[in-house]
Write a structure and sequence with these properties.
It is a single chain. This protein is an alpha/beta fold. The chain has a single domain (30-207), classed as Vaccinia Virus protein VP39 (Rossmann fold, 3-Layer(aba) Sandwich). It is 39% helix and 22% strand. Helix 1 (2-8) packs across helix 2 (15-28) and helix 3 packs parallel to helix 4. 40% of the residues are buried.
Length: 209
């Protein structure tokens, strides 16, 4: 029962089980996020946006890498915003981090605002993936990069590996080829993908022209 209650709160955490899910995501995505961040260049003065910031641990890890830069985190779960603000309290006070309630479908930022946008284990939940990718493209600076990170990748070898999770929370996992195609349709170029041997992890990076 505990596992099912956690899964029910994967998309938009709320209440007691939402709090448990946020803690689970922070712990469960720690190694995945560290592996992915090693594939993206983060300069010390960059402005970075983390889409679907969850419990805020990815935001704090990015903040450690960008010196006097600034990190923005958005999520559409009010509970996630609360936890992200607590996780990043010190950096928020010194104006290095800002956490906001917002949706990937309508980002509250001007065109060409960010050097890098990250999204860890959130792509599955986006309501209109192509238009949401185009919205991210809009807020990236020229030559800026988007990094999408997946734990649950659909592979030819194990196409039904994540079926139970998909059915429970109403998502569809995607293949590496589908991700590359969607990034290209949204306008991204120089698309690179990285996989970790022995896992279904994927890090996909695309650049704005």
């Amino acid at each position: 029962m505990k596992y099912h209650k956690l899964l029910e709160n994967a998309k938009k955490p709320k209440g007691f089980w939402g709090k448990k899910m946020i803690n689970s995501m922070n712990e469960g995505h720690y190694e995945l996020t560290g592996w992915a961040l090693d594939h993206i260049n983060l300069e010390r003065n960059y402005r970075v946006l983390d889409v679907g910031c969850g419990g805020g641990l990815t935001v704090s890890r990015i903040a450690e890498r960008i010196g006097n830069g600034k990190v923005y985190g958005i999520d559409y779960s009010a509970l996630c915003i609360k936890h992200s603000k607590a996780q990043n309290r010190k950096n928020i006070l010194c104006n290095k981090v800002k956490i906001m309630l917002a949706s990937v479908s309508s980002l509250p930022f001007d065109d060409c605002s960010f050097d890098v946008v990250t999204a860890v284990e959130t792509y599955y939940f986006w309501p209109d993936k192509l238009n949401d990718l185009k919205e991210i493209y809009r807020v990236l600076k020229p030559s800026g990069k988007l990094m999408l990170v997946f734990e649950m990748l659909k592979t030819p070898e194990e196409p039904d590996k994540w079926k139970a999770v998909e059915d429970k929370i109403g998502i569809k996992t995607v293949t590496e080829e589908e991700i590359r195609e969607m990034l290209a349709k949204a306008g991204f170029s120089d698309i690179e993908t990285y996989k970790k041997e022995g896992t279904t992890w994927l890090c996909a990076i695309g650049a704005k022209n």
